[in-house]
Please model this.
Amino acid sequence: MRKLPCQNDVYAQHVLNAFLVNVARVTVSQMFFLRFSILLRLVFSSLKPHEYCSLLFDYRKVFAYCVKFNRRSARSVFALLLVSASTISIADTGDELDRAYGYATAGNYGDAIAIWKILAKSGEPNSLYNLSIVYEKGIVVEKDIEKSFALCEQAAINGQVPAQAHLGTKYRLGIGVGRDLEEAIMWYQRAAAQGDMAALSSLGNIYVSEEGGNDYVKAHDYWSAAAALGDVNSIFNLAILFHRGAGEYKADIQQAIELYTAAATAGSIEAMANLIGIYSAGDGVPIDLREAYFWCDIAVAAGLEENRSYLKYLKSQLTTEELRLAKEEILNWQELRRSYTDYGKI
Model:
């Protein structure tokens, strides 16, 4: 197995984003790719960054995960892995960054920061960005928003993609710099062009807003790109767009349900809540209290405590057989979720 050094979670996320961008280039079905990307992200969700990157390049193990979770699409997934992986280029972060990452992971931020400071003097972009986060959050050092901005800007100029997206957010919100939407869009677009999920999602949020011109076409396109990379908020936003209809997009409840289901599968409690409402009220579909019970039970288990009483009500409305089937589906769901953390047994 090829071992890849990853100095932080942000970099590991970018590794997978770059991989999925390449997968998208050889995928003809957007909905298949959306499901695949969510599946792959759920597989990786419990891993540490070094495992995350190593597993990405161990095709047989990824394939084994996919077989376990979705046998019908496993062969297609494996084909996509083989076709796309050859186009990925990951820069070697170096022994010092690896050492700094080890310190930071162990909570020894002082030693990690000392290494980042040395590397940052030569313009090393990952170190610059890490220091930017350190000063933004006040980790060990005194919080310094202006210094954080300057470090983030230099990292972005030097090509660090997550830094470019983060710089866009700083300009958009006016963090450490005057608010400048045009500059924010420029940096978001630069990061988005390299497959940064956060930048794509943020651009969608900008264009759907009044200050972005309520451009639903651009918002849809950026959210779709982010959704294909597994961004749950973008999947949810697309679901809302098709649920309510806006601009050039007419309401399409079936498309909305499919997207809500994808977001809920990835852990969105808001999507679960909307599915409960749709099936309970018969919003564009026949009333299905068993399906409502299914999502309500999952949502309550995920933390939506205010729905606990409604869960009891739904339970009282089901027949014995309907309740048995619903509980069986819930158990299957729970087993699938547990299997995502079953890394050692694959």
